[in-house]
Amino acid sequence: MLRQFELVERVKSYDPTADEDGLNRAYVFAVKMHGSQKRESGDPYFSHPVEVAGILTEYKLDYATIVTALLHDTMEDTAASHEDIEKLFGSEVAFLVEGVTKLSKIQAQSEHNKQAENFRKLVLAMSEDIRVLLIKLADRLHNMRTLHFCKKEEKRLRIARETLDIYAPLAERLGMNKMKDELEDLAFQQLHPEAYQSIISRLNFLREKGGDLIERIVQQLEEDVREIGDDADVYGREKRPYSIWRKMQRQNISFEQICDIMAFRVVVPTVADCYHVLGIIHTKYPMIPGRYKDYISTPKSNGYQSLHTGVIGPVKQRIEVQIRTRDMHEVAELGVAAHWEYKQNMAPTVDGKKFRWMRELLDLLNDSSNSDEFLENTKISMYNDQIFCFTPKGDLFNLPKDATAIDFAYAVHSNVGDRCVGVKINGEIRPLRTILQNGDQVEILTSKTQTPSPEWERFVVTAKAKAAIRRFIRNQKRTQFTELGKSLIQNLYKENKVAFNDKEIEAVLTHFKKDSLDDLYVMMGEGIVLPSDVFYKIHPEKRSTLQRVVEIFKRKPNKINKSEKNNLIKGLVSGIALHYSRCCHPVPGDKIVGIVTTGKGVAIHKADCNMLKKYAHEPERWLDIEWNDNIDGVERLFPVRVRITVADKPNALATISTAVSKAGSNISHLFTTEKSTGFMELSMDVDIKNTAHLEEVIAALKALPVVVSLTKESN
Question: Pick the catalytic residue: 20, 76, 165, 402?
């Protein structure tokens, strides 16, 4: 554990203006407040905040962040209050400590609450001040270093999984690769201990077998790049265990098949030197095709810059060489902390919203309907490899591997994605689902009348595109359910000869725990709240007289509204979600009714369907509807299931298929339900237009010599 003077010296070494007295007081305050508290390892509890502060000094963070690290558990675990900390250390430190404390309280509840909700709150907190995330990452790193002391295996695995899913990717997004690597390896060790030990053993074996192999390659590379001067540093290292394991999983290969276990880094003064060294390396050693990446001209989204190349290097080993300047190296190691500025009487810029990826996370938060969807979208956003594509004007966009033109459109702007109708890739018109390649020039074609298609969600890969499409579909469904719910309650008022009034319904919003009329209409449209419950609450005197008798076979035809002219069914709100019940297979010509079903819109049933019995005591769900015989230019096919007993003869199925086709129908589904000597029983779905067409198809099938019997399946 760092001693008090050692911690102060570390901070003063990179920030001479830091308040030494404040650091000393914070150290003493933490030790005093945590007192005799112990960690699971048996160490004094105050060793934890001290170690967290020590981790943050490696990233040269500002005075307020280090003090907050020392105090980050005092509000939660001791008698210290916000007022105490603000009085002793100032409002900035008190604000940060409170931010980290809120996250700790969330984390303490994570066994009972969803991980997704925890992460949503973490994103909101770190968007206010990125230092909250930096402290939380250091806190998680020290906890992972001591996780083996935790006695409960379930808890260890949960924390390790959360670290791998959330905290390591966030560290990578901040460019803090050193921290990311350690978090991944520590989590990997807990989640897959056998695989971890196997890789460690194999690395030890290679190290013993190769002796000073890395050192010899470093010496040779130093000689190779000497022509640019003596100001080049060469380092060698093995790949991290988790990195090796992930590559084995991703490429489905064994440890022995990984040829670039060793990686080497050349650090030089200038960008020109980077490309000069690259030329030297490629001149002296054969380049491995597909292994060259230029992250200097096209940096990663977290600011990472470097040249990567794979070659058959010294001693005929396949190696990876990374080439970068010293500034790039500092950014690669420290990430966002490398840009920290220390100016007299001026706090560093810490607003999380200034980071593009943070803004994207906040956009995802707004577009996602719930915490689970947000976490899913975020994982998609953080885990994919990148490609780079350009607009015709030369603007660069980085996208995940396998991204499509739709993903590119949403990367440009949400409005561009919503209105996308076509795409030109490298000057050629291509389908919207075309997978983009590195270096493609992409021109998005738009239309003001276009809206997102639900089909797009099947092939887009970026979180932003998925969230935007889901948001549109969600809003569209909400509009439909709002109109249906309002129509249902209006009909109920009309049947009871009561004048409809929005203000009456507003008066009962609190009773149904809704904030607005639209919210209540949506719940009625989805069938979650019954319109009768709302009506009874407003007009209890009508409860005894409220009845509804559905006389489908005696009713008069509905009048067609202009808005229903092109609807296949009369009596429904235009555009409402509907589906045809599989229990009775209603088709044009049948007498039908509509049933409002929870979350699915309206189910269309035949009027004599046995399933309607279960809705007998819920008349509010019933809709008076019928087929629209006057619809213009629309022909739809409906599946009807028939059961056929067929003589087991050659070409029997071909004969049946031909007869169905000649009758103007199609077999959409066919399976054998029973087979005996000489006969087989089939269930078959045939697509028909109306009841007359169905009778025609049935007659054609019954006329076949191979058909022994035929019945139409019903409920």
Answer: 76
